[in-house]
Amino acid sequence: MKDIRINVYPEMFASAENAVLESGNFKVSAFRYSTGVCALRLTNGDNELVILPFQGQQIWRAKMGGHDLTMKTGFTEPVDTEDFLSTYGGFLLHCGATSMGNPSPEDTHPQHGELPNMRYDSAYVLCGEDEKGAYVAIGGKRDYYVPFTTEFLAEPEIRLYDGATTAEVTMKVTNLRTSPMEFIYLCHINFRPFDGTRLVWAGDTAKVYRDVPDTLPEDAKARLNAYLDKLEADPTLHVVVDSASQCYLPEIVFRVNNKTDADGFAHCMGVLPDECAYYVNYRTAELPVGVRWISRTGDEDTFGMLLPSTAEHLGMIHARRTGQVEWLAAGGVKEMKMTFGLLDKETAAKTEAMIKAL
């Protein structure tokens, strides 16, 4: 199959949904949310991704194998903003690239940096075929420029293959300045948790971050502190999701270690009660830090079972102090690749056996 590329522009998006591309099982359609945000709906039959081509190249919604993968928040539609928490409801967000994480009181950067809601200069739909089969991809470019300080090119792409219930996402960042550039990145993948979901990965829990907000009521502080005490004594208590015995109000973050397969990929699964499984893999050479984030407030319900990252989530000052900031040379390129989605029962069982063998 010869590759077909369709460039998309904001003017193509209206409140009525219109087809952009149809090829075999694939369909891409364009629409605009009532908030004004442009969206592309990509399907390969029963599986669906809704992508915001001009706002962060976020995956706003993901449905795979009959499962709605996306976390629960109060946002039913994306909001036209660059502020992280003012539109926090998407399934997958790129975070970085010159800052990342929750800013400490000493930090001056926005939460999770420029990338989550970055305005993209251009976006495209690509239909093609490679050694894995036929695919449709959605990608974009943004030349991000701050005079005398920073210029980089961000080039994300999401690729879905025919019949697949997993998708590939890449992010390529190029330093366009003649001086080195600080670089930091995290891929925020936000699944929906269900009681009985069982975490599987080849590694252990390296750290439980103890963060109890002063704004919590005293009884909530007591519950969270009591559960953190238990986790610090036995981190395996969080491996099976259980709302009755666990407390993630408002959140708990973990750092996890990950062993890799022979090709350098780390794997993580969340085996659901029906024996299908959420799935993430990534290369640890590109993304050496595994972050796990769980929040179950009653209003928000999210299960960041494995967020591939170059650093912890604690802001730029902490990253600099601990040597977790990378430097891209003039013209230097950093490219990262991850796979996410849902595994059916048979594939989940085989993948679990593979992970345990590591």
Task: Pick out its properties.
mainly beta, 358 residues, globular, 22 strands, six-stranded antiparallel sheet, single chain, nine-stranded antiparallel sheet, 10% helix
Can you offer a commentary on this structure?
The protein contains 3 helices and 22 strands. The strands form 4 sheets. It has a 9-stranded antiparallel β-sheet with strand order 1-9-10-11-12-22-18-17-14. The protein has a 6-stranded antiparallel β-sheet with strand order 2-3-4-5-6-7, with no helix packed on it. It has helices spanning 218-233, 316-321, 345-357; strands spanning 4-8, 18-23, 26-32, 38-43, 48-52, 58-64, 67-68, 92-97, 122-130, 133-146, 150-161, 166-175, 181-189, 198-201, 205-209, 252-256, 265-271, 277-283, 289-296, 301-309, 326-328, 333-343. The model has no long low-confidence stretch (mean pLDDT 97).
Rg (CA only): 20 Å
List segments where confidence is low: pLDDT < 50 over at least 5 consecutive residues. none
Q: Using DSSP, what is the number of strands?
A: 22
Total helical elements:
3
Provide the residue-averaged pLDDT. 97
Shape verdict: globular
What is the SS-derived class? mainly beta
SSE succession: EEEEEEEEEEEEEEEHEEEEEHEEH
Strand numbers in spatial order across the main sheet: 1-9-10-11-12-22-18-17-14
Terminal residue distance: 37 Å
